[in-house]
Structure formats: structure tokens, C-alpha cells
Amino acid sequence: MNRAAVGQLGAKKPLNQRAKAFLTDFFRQWELQSMILPGVIFMIIFCYIPIYGLSIAFKSYTVIDTLDTAPWVGLYNFKIIMTDKYFWDAVINTLGISFLKLAIGFVIPIILAIMIYEVSIGRFKKFVQTISYLPHFLSWIVLGGMLITWFSTSGLFNQLLLSLGIISQPQNILLDPNKYWWIATLSDIWKEAGWGTILYLAIMAKIDPTYYEAAKIDGASRLRQIWNITLPNMKTIINLNLILTISGLLGSNLDQTLVLMNSQNREKAEVINSYVYRMGMTQGDFSYATAVGLGVSIVSVILLVTANKVTSRLNDNQSVL
Question: Which residues is 72 bridged to in the sheet?
Fold first, then answer.
């Protein structure tokens, strides 16, 4: 009997027999199953139960109401979103910063990982890895404070630009809204680029060294080896990271925004996450903030599915998800 027939017979088993088989397998592996139970319980409490709170988006909710007593308003909050100028300004800022991070920040960890992998001196390689990883473990409170100090009129950057003759008088760079997108992008890359190399380095460590030896015998240069051996073996993880990055285009680093945003650069610094935070936590409009968050989540899922479809077609219909 072939596997298809066996699968059909298994599918036709009564529900009680399938439940009994499941419980038998569960208790046979109870040590392994018990290890995932805390994670399952965590997801149920913090990921699935709060889904019921999304009903606030369709109600006029206040702090004196409960989820059941708040009056139902249907799509009223979503209609306000479509005409809210400040929301669309936040969308533009979010997309602008996200596309810059995608165009620059997605490539830099790949290049950095290849450069680290090519270093032959073990101690120097570990030193570079440690230095590149370090900013990831510092909170945005610490890094933001450093950036605010560096960008001040008497800070490091102004002193450097003055000494090079690029500017004639110091200025607080963070107060210039036209420079904020670049500040947000480059500071995020500085913080996360080193940490982003971990997956790429793990993949490169598994590449068979005989490929490089054969390429050397054929006279391939180091760049040719990287192009024809290293990058093709990294294709799967690169596609996966690209899909996840595209799905998060409407997301943004709330911690970074809250630290670096001020009254002068708000018009270019306000992103969707900070807008939702301000509307919900500061102004108390929980229904509107929930509606915005729900809409962003739906669009993010659409972007995820679309990016997965496109990458699978570019890779002979082989999906990485």
C-alpha cells in the first residue's frame, strides 16, 4: 500500500481514535512536550487572549467603559483615519524611514558578515564581531542620549564639521527635521548591523570548504568566489530576511522615535507607532489608536504574503516560509 493510501486511511479514523493517538504520543514524549508548554501558555495569555480587545476599534471606548458596555460605532474610527492628515503624515514618515533602512540597512549586514568571514586572523575577527555586536545590547535610552549629545551645538559632530571647514557655525542637527530620516536610518544601522550578521555568519560557517578549494584551482579570484559560492549559499536566509523586512515596512522603532523626536523635528519624526502611542496613551482615544493598529497589522500581513509570493516565483516557486 502506498503512502497516499495510508494517509487517506489515517484521515478516516474516528475523532476519538485520533485524540487517543495524540495523547499517547504526547505522554510518550512528555519530557519534550513539557518544554514547550511555557511558551504555549505565554502565547495564549499575551497573544491570543488580547485579540478580543481588537473589538475596541469598532466601539467608542473610554476608561469608564468595559469591552462589553462600550457603544458600537462600526467603521466610524476607520473613516476618521482616512481623513486624518496627521495619520497620513506619520505614514509618509514611516515609509520614508523604512525604505531607507531597507535600501541601506538590509545590504550592510550582508557585506559586513562577508568581510568578517573573510578575516583570517582569529583574534582580530573576534574583536570586530564584539565591537559590531555591542551597540545592539545598549538601549535606545543610552544610545539616544549619546546621539543627542553628539548632535548638540557643542557636540562631537559640530566640532568635527567646524574643524573640517564644512560649516561656519554650529547647529543642533536633531532640531533640523529635514535631516531626521537620515539620522534615524543611520543610527538604527549602527545599532543593529553587527547583530544582523549572526545568521549570515552561521550559514557561511556551514559552506563546504572544498567549494573554495576547487574555485582556487580553477583560478577564481576572491570576489568571484564570494559571488559564485558564498552568496548563492546565503540565498535562503537573505530571502527570509527580505520577506520579514518588507512585511515590517509600516512598523518602526518606537523606542528610537520617542528618544530622538522633539517639538522641532516632529513633522518628520512622527511615525505610525509613535502616533498610535500618542493617540492612545497620551490623549486617551483608545478606540482610534486600536483602529490604526489593526489597519497597520492587516496591511503588514498583506505585504508579508505578497513578498513571499514574489520571492517564491523568483526562486522557482520555492518558498522559504
Answer: 59
In the chain, the amino acid numbered 197 is: T
Q: Which helix (H) or strand (E) holds 131?
A: helix 122-133
| CATH at 109 | 1.10.3720.10
Whole-angstrom CA distances from 156 to 31, 61, 149, 171, 272 are 56, 48, 8, 12, 31
Main-chain phi, psi angles of 72, to 5 degrees: -80, 130
pLDDT tens for residues 15-44? 788 888 888 888 888 888 888 888 899 999
Residue 164 inside a domain? The answer is yes
The rounded distance, in Å, linking the Cα atoms of 52 and 66 is 12
> In Å, how far from its chain's centre is CA 115?
23
pLDDT tens digit string along 220-261? 888 999 999 999 999 889 988 999 899 888 887 889 999 999
Whether 124 is covered by a domain: the verdict is yes
Asked if residue 285 belongs to a domain, the reply is yes
| Three-class DSSP category at 153 | coil
Farthest-apart Cα atoms in the chain, separation? 84
Alpha-carbon distance of 304 to 246, in angstroms, equals 7
Which of 278, 248, 301 lies closest to 87, judged by CA? 278
Q: What is the pLDDT of residue 321?
A: 60
Separation between Cα atoms, residue 275 and residue 266, nearest integer Å:
11
CA distances, 69 to each of 51, 52, 77, 186, 283 (Å): 17, 14, 17, 47, 21
